[in-house]
Amino acid sequence: MIEQNTVKFLQDLSVNNNRDWFADNRKVYEAARDNFIAFIDDLIPDLQNIDPFITDVNAKNAVFRIFKDVRFSKKKEPYKTSFGAAIGKGGRKSEYPGYYLHIKPDGETFVGGGIHHPQPAILKSIRSEIAHNTKQFEEIINDLDFLANFGELEGDKLIRPPKGFDKEHPAVEHLKRKDFLMLHKIPDSKICHPDFKTHCLGKFERMKPLNEYFRGPVYDILENND
Q1: Quick check: 100 and 112 in contact, CB under 8 A?
Q2: What 3-state DSSP class applies to 87?
Q3: What span, in angstroms and rounded, lies between the C-alpha atoms of 110 and 196?
Q4: How many structural domains are present in the chain?
Q5: Where in the sequence is the domain holding 18, given as residue range(s)?
Q6: What is the pTM of this model?
Q7: What is the CA radius of gyration of the chain?
């Protein structure tokens, strides 16, 4: 389970986001990181039981580094103030839809799923699937249980219909999407609770139908485009 010291480290880092403080607290960071890694390693087999498509993944290739690349950023804080892991086929760099856990105390912890910033060919393939199979897509995202857990899909969206698609298509608002993200916020009180893993797995299971919907069009590009 996630330990209280892990949460405290992230809270302390958020107000001491500098290299000197981090160096002085390196061992505290390592203990927090190891706790998060252990949690992800424990979570993955249970998630694979829910979704066997999630293969070739472990905490090492799922967990994101805490160190930020600030070369092209206006914000120069050197560290992320969260722990995150993207659990998809092949790990965090997978182009397949997957599952995400983001731990950031003070109200910003969430689980997520779907597909984020897909490459142009994959995005076009997903849009084509939605255009030709709108009914199934809308049945998934308009399901009452889905809406109760995630609300509407989130992410970036075009202002105008994408090139190559009918601007009068009934699903045109879906076709404008550049991301297809399911998000569910988790209160701080649950982070260190013994049932936290079970809570995350329950939300991931509800995300599975939409992830499965996207896998066909993603597979068409990744596996059939030598």
Answers
A1: yes
A2: strand
A3: 11
A4: 1
A5: 4-222
A6: 0.94
A7: 19
